[in-house]
TrEMBL record:
The gene is argC. GO terms for cellular component: cytoplasm. GO terms for molecular function: N-acetyl-gamma-glutamyl-phosphate reductase activity; NAD binding; NADP+ binding. Pathway: Amino-acid biosynthesis; L-arginine biosynthesis; N(2)-acetyl-L-ornithine from L-glutamate: step 3/4. This is N-acetyl-gamma-glutamyl-phosphate reductase. It comes from Marivirga aurantiaca. Catalyzes the NADPH-dependent reduction of N-acetyl-5-glutamyl phosphate to yield N-acetyl-L-glutamate 5-semialdehyde. Its EC number is 1.2.1.38. InterPro entries: AGPR, AGPR_AS, AGPR_dimerisation_dom, AGPR_type-1, NAD(P)-bd_dom_sf, Semialdehyde_DH_NAD-bd. It is found in: Cytoplasm. The active site is at C150.
Length: 344
């Protein structure tokens, strides 16, 4: 059986440990190294107790890992950090799958407006946007794959069929999303502190979140007819999961059954998109790589409303990254990802 040698950079974080969880059960994967700067030398299970007896590799520093022979490196690093390391791995001939936002936007000026100065902008145009349902052929050929953001994954999958069809008026598309706290990473923070969040629920970054340009930038590739995107993120007192409710004004009335048939044709053959017949629930995708999508037509207001749910750490990050690896290395698309959601 074909074996793929893998390095996971940033394994001490949440998406890094989720990559370990998925890849330990992947028939083609051999994890060669896992990294952490702050915990180098420690056993992985000292940080992530769930892996006791399952992952014996010690954590090493990135600099030590650079020259270790692998086929693919997953960068589970904060944006602004990834862009320093991706070129070093690429020049050593590794395929790089970056989970940060550093190579997702195809426009350096747009990146620098929403993030900070880019230190390796020459790689932006070489990167494929790693949303397999839309860009499989680009992913197959790319040595640098920019894994999508978690909110953009849920929003783009909900909206792509309508945008691609052109059945929308040239106005503002609304994306209203709610996320669990693992989206904020492993470092404790004020708003994710238990007493701040328990029994609570609130919006944040209402004046602008970097996922708004990502959703617009990617959806714009599907149609030249203009539109704008308004995105509002919220924090939920749950660990995993994102629910996005999206609203689009159609340019012509549509029958609900036709809308559902249209979505079902658009996603035919895509193993991780499931169309639901009632509003989707985050618990139904927890721990899995599924995106559950519910398209609806509000006749009274002549508005298309599409709801989608994903697990932010799986379809929103590590699972999608493994899906990208499977495509890039010509493996079974579903390898390692046949994960049934936790139920209940
Ligand atoms: N959490 C989520 O749901 C999603 C996250 N993402 C993106 O994925 C990336 C990782 O996210 P997440 O796992 O949540 O983040 P975490 O904060 O949980 O983990 C970050 C990791 O990066 C390492 N790191 C931080 N700074 C440096 C540095 N200067 N040099 C080397 N290593 C460093 C940390 O290692 P150390 O042990 O040294 O601290 C840690 O392993 C981010 O870009 C995030 O935006 C994307 C989609 C969803
Ligand atoms: C709940 C929460 O805090 N979520 C994060 C998004 C995490 C993510 O996927 O974003 P990037 O990969 O683009 O950084 C946030 O709003 O910043």
């Amino acid at each position: 059986m074909k074996k793929i040698k893998i390095g996971i950079v940033g394994a001490s974080g949440y998406t890094g440990s989720e990559l370990v969880r998925i890849l330990l059960n992947h028939p083609n994967a051999v994890i060669e190294y896992i990294t952490s700067e702050s915990s180098a030398g420690k056993p992985f299970a000292d940080l992530h107790g769930a892996f006791r007896g399952l992952m014996e590799l010690p954590l090493v520093k990135v600099e030590e890992a650079l020259d270790m022979e692998v086929d693919v490196v997953f960068l589970a690093l904060p944006h602004s950090v990834s862009m320093n390391f991706a070129p070093k791995f690429l020049e050593r001939g590794r395929v790089v799958i970056d989970l940060s936002g550093d190579y997702r936007l195809d426009d350096v000026a747009l990146y620098e407006k929403w993030y900070q100065k880019h230190v390796s902008p020459e790689f932006i145009e070489k990167a494929a946007y790693g949303l397999p349902e839309l860009f499989k052929e680009d992913i197959r050929k790319a040595d640098l794959i920019a894994n999508p953001g978690c909110y953009p994954t849920s929003a783009i999958l909900a909206l792509a069929p309508i945008i691609a069809s052109g059945n929308y008026v040239e106005s503002t598309i609304i994306v209203d999303s709610k996320s669990g706290t693992t989206g904020a990473g492993i470092k404790p923070g004020g708003s994710t502190h238990f007493p701040s969040l328990y029994g609570n629920f609130f919006a944040y970054k209402v004046d602008g979140h970097r996922h708004q340009p990502e959703i617009h930038n990617i959806l714009s590739k599907l149609n030249s007819k203009p539109f704008s995107v308004r995105f509002t993120p919220h924090l939920l007192p749950i660990d995993r999961g994102i629910l996005s409710t999206t609203y689009v004004k159609p340019s012509q009335k549509i029958d609900l059954n036709d809308l559902r048939a249209f979505f079902s044709n658009f996603y035919a053959g895509q193993p991780f998109v499931r169309l639901t017949s009632s509003p989707p629930q985050v618990k139904n995708v927890k721990g899995s790589n599924f995106a559950d999508i519910f398209p609806f037509y509000d006749e009274e207001n002549d508005l298309i409303v599409i709801l989608s749910v994903i697990d932010n750490l799986v379809k929103g990050a590590a699972g999608q990254a493994v899906h990208n690896m499977n495509i890039r290395f010509d493996l079974d698309e579903k390898a390692g990802l046949n994960l049934a959601p936790l139920n209940p």
